[in-house]
């Protein structure tokens, strides 16, 4: 089969063996925001046409392709939800010559009645849970970091943190932009930022301290970038690690996942980085259970 | 004398009687960022020239005009600092026909060794402390909210919160921009945001909840604007009210000050709004103590 993680700004496609192994892979910047006039069908055919010509007949899509801005809006499935419930709710879209299905996103409600949603991450979580049976808490860091609790193979609940997006907004659209230079992460400054997040004052105060430390206390502008990154991740961990005793599986690009593993360890937690190809594994697992006829 | 609060984006000038009463006032958008080629002297003469022609010979400036980007960089004075210490450090700049002085900003270091700074707010605090002798905690809400503890007439310490600027960055430069419409503050949604800030999850999670509540739970885009405002102010209060038992004097534009008074009251605190003209009162008090020769 073919698995596709079709997100807002990127598209990743895998050709998968019957046992879920990746035979071939492709990535493009043709996220749904880059598709004009709803030309999802021809774009998909363009990207995986040779695999179809070679005999593939099943295509499973996850991510924002199932949103209102995507190919076909697929209703969120409420948590808790396991692989069988999700596989039972795959939604077909018309495509000549192959069966194409979209994975539903998940919705949850926290103890205070506020909703949260994901699209695409549910598939990564299913893949990561397959990779590592011991981890019950799964972290997917990024623009909108997701933390999910998995129990007996079902996604029980999850929370989203705007960590990556707020980091970018602060670094680019506030006074901090004048005293920060982006670049490779300085590990000492990063860890100092993670630690600062545990001190009194809160994020709104700690963020201003990035500027004063550069102007008054000799922090370099390159270190300020790493420190702010640590500060944001540290504040995410303040909430996300609350009450978490089990190991955390961190699923993401290797550099970012490594930062999270370091930050979690600095808080006394145990974290393991899981291969980012969790999407492919999740798509393979769902594909096995899908009704393709 | 003439008092001027010359900030980054605005300039406010007052003609003051000997007893500190405001005889006349003026406001322009000629903040220091709007001044080209360092033409501070002619701009000032343009704005208060008629008052000078009418006999004024003393001009006291506070705010970012004393920064590196201003007319003349004036070193920060360390806290604790009272009115006499600040008055002793007024810095003259050359100006034909009048004595012009700049008020120094203040610097402080928190218990964890991180610096904080203010320029202009020290003058407002001195003015507000004169207006209301009972309040020991003074809040100046805004782009960068300042909270100061005043004891025996001296500014003991203070903290800055990037509340207003982070609110704007979130509302304009993140995904929240798509589900928020700016407008008058809906008081019910505002108070709900203030309350939400006390719940588990932290600011990074609560901010994402603004979007999900609009998309999934029927919150209007106008209410989302007020809710996000309440959320940000609520997170500021989480830190700023920690350990504060005395009444808080809130100094600022009436609409914003009223929101803070409401938010502080909803947390069981006591707050009073103080006239925003605290700058003029502070400049008058400093002017009385200055050496003008």
TrEMBL record, chains A, B:
Originating species: Acidiphilium rubrum
- Tell me the CDD domains matching this sequence: ASKHA_NBD_KDGal-kinase (cd24012)
Which UniProt keywords are given for this protein, alphabetically ordered? Kinase, Transferase
Biological process (GO) annotations? D-galactonate catabolic process
The keyword Membrane is assigned to this record = no
Q: What is this protein called?
A: 2-dehydro-3-deoxygalactonokinase
Q: Which Pfam families match?
A: DGOK (PF05035)
- What GO molecular-function term can you cite, just one? 2-dehydro-3-deoxygalactonokinase activity
What InterPro entries would the database entry show? DGOK, DGOK_C, DGOK_N
Superkingdom as given in the UniProt entry: Bacteria
